[in-house]
Amino acid sequence: MTKEECFYLGNIVGKFSFKGEVLIKLDTDEPETYTEMESVLIEYNENLVPFFIERSSLHKSDLLRIKFEDISTEEDAEDLIGAKLYLPLSLLPELPEDKFYFHEIIGFDVIDAHHGNIGKIVSVNDSTAQALFEIEKDGKQILIPMNDEFIQRIDKPNKTIYLTTPEGLVDLYLQ
After folding, report:
1. pTM for this one?
2. Backbone φ and ψ of 119, nearest 5°
3. Could you read off the pLDDT of 128-137 as tens digits, one per residue?
4. Between 2.40.30.60, 3.30.160.60, 3.30.230.10, 3.30.930.10, what CATH number should domain 3-91 receive?
5. Strand-pair partners of 59
6. Whole-number pLDDT of residue 150
7. Architecture of domain 102-174
């Protein structure tokens, strides 16, 4: 399985016990959704390797404490710290029509109420305080905050997002 067929779940941030347990920082608003997993894919030496889960539980509400099969020492656990975890895209829960996962809107057209079609979403930048749509139009990059007040409608079947941006925002990029 390749990374393109998966979604990023989180990463191993530390070890928990001398018996090989690890703590995982999940990239989700609902960590409880992932307490019953049987296995995960861990990026190890640039490959996705399946690891089977013996047991897991929430730790301090936002971390997942996991005991993997065949990881039974502190040294084994230490070797996994910093590793990224993935799951197949097919395991993503269905979202309501007005919600989306970042990966599924790549390539969507963006229609602004004031400017019409302002380009296609090429990426979502979530490394800033507020996630940004990265839109490309005629070789220019347009950055629009992913603000619920700006998003008017999402048309998944037609791969289009309708926005109403504040006056002047899009003009900054198109001049």
Report:
1. 0.69
2. 130, -165
3. 888 999 999 9
4. 2.40.30.60
5. 63
6. 95
7. Roll (2.30)
